[in-house]
Design goal:
14% strand; alpha/beta; Rossmann fold; 9 strands; disordered N terminus
């Protein structure tokens, strides 16, 4: 069996699966020995093993029922000239404050705007017009025969702002939404008044460890084909319910919303993200920015988030949490997000800032 079989369109036959299993078994003893040495010598590996044990620990059973969502702004489908149809959340102008700035929310990889931002929709909409976009291949986002690129996502976001008649916006990007926000500021500088970057990085494959992680996309695609992705999704949601009981009523919706994404497109998006590098241009953007650093993040390491802050000359707000903090620690995430948006709005001359602390959590 060739490694390319994992990412090609051909199906896996019983014989090829047997071959793959034989190869895996042949390396198991050597792999076990190497893993034992790595565990004894590396605190990082020890922490990862503890996290793996936590992941397989007992978790609550998911609620069964209709996938009823939490409160969200009105949603609509926009036809973008020359691009296609996109799904957008739009809270509309703030009542009594038609001049209030707009915040454009750009979600992370495998998520949707609703999954990523449902805790902050309401608090932000009290003082800003809030617009959220589902990216290509994610949620209810645009489906196309073209290959996924982050540049296309940035151009989609620009087209949404123009179609809604919004001249400038504060652009907030979470995880993969961070690179899209940076590209939006680079390619359409007239539309971006300020940036808020959360749980994201300047580049994504600067170390051998990161390159190894991204090579695992072949296994991700295999999981999508054989349905094990759904098992992982349910596990993630069960963990969310355990650590954030307030999301328990929305558990069926969380599972259903995760499943909206297109498997092939999510794989392409991961590859595009792994190749992103803003080092050549980030420091030249020259706009107000705040970086929210998720201090316990195992997916985007905090030191990489701080490198982005340095490149943007951005203020930093720390959030005590891992990469899933919007769902796992919704109140904490909301507090930091509102503070960050208020801060860049003030710095950009768009509104008064609330008090911003050095850390949240």
């Amino acid at each position: 069996m060739r490694a390319s079989d994992l990412t090609s369109g051909s199906s896996l036959t019983p014989s090829s699966l047997k071959t793959w299993a034989t190869v895996a078994a042949a390396g198991s003893l050597a792999g076990a020995a190497a893993a034992g040495i790595a565990y004894r010598r590396s605190p990082v590996v020890q922490r990862e093993v503890l996290e793996a044990k936590r992941f397989v620990s007992a978790l609550p059973t998911l609620r069964v029922g209709a996938p009823l969502p939490p409160p969200t702004p009105p949603g609509k489908v926009l036809l973008l000239p020359g691009r296609g149809e996109v799904f957008v959340r739009d809270s509309g102008p703030v009542e009594g404050r038609p001049e209030a700035p707009t915040v454009l929310l750009l979600h992370g990889w495998t998520a949707s705007a609703d999954l990523n931002f449902f805790p902050v929709y309401g608090p932000l909409a009290e003082r800003y017009r809030v617009v959220g976009v589902d990216h290509r291949g994610h949620g209810r986002g645009l489906r196309s025969v073209e290959h996924f690129t982050l540049e296309d996502c940035a151009d989609d976001a620009a087209a949404v702002l123009r179609e809604l008649g919004i001249d400038r916006a504060i652009v907030l990007g979470y995880s993969m939404g961070g690179p899209i926000a940076l590209l939006l500021a680079q390619r359409h500088p007239d539309l971006v008044a300020a940036l808020v970057s959360q749980a994201t990085a300047l580049e994504w494959r600067g170390t051998a460890y990161e390159r190894l992680v991204w090579r695992g996309l072949a296994l991700w695609e295999l999981n999508r084909r054989f349905g094990t992705f759904d098992v992982v999704v349910e596990r993630i949601v069960r963990e969310a319910v355990k650590y954030a009981p307030e999301v328990e009523p929305y558990a069926p919706w969380l599972v259903a919303e995760f499943r909206r994404g297109s498997g092939a497109w999510l794989t392409e998006a991961g590859r595009a993200l792994s190749e992103f590098d803003a080092r050549p241009f980030a420091s030249s953007l020259g706009i107000p920015a705040v970086v929210c650093v998720t201090t316990k993040d195992r997916l985007v390491r905090p030191h990489k988030q701080r490198q982005l802050a340095d490149a943007l000359s951005a203020e930093v707000i720390e959030i005590a949490g891992d990469h899933g903090v919007p769902v796992m620690r919704g109140a904490r995430y909301t507090q930091a997000t509102v503070a960050a948006v208020d801060q860049v709005a003030a710095n950009a001359g768009l509104g008064a800032a609330a008090h911003v602390g050095a850390a949240v959590g």
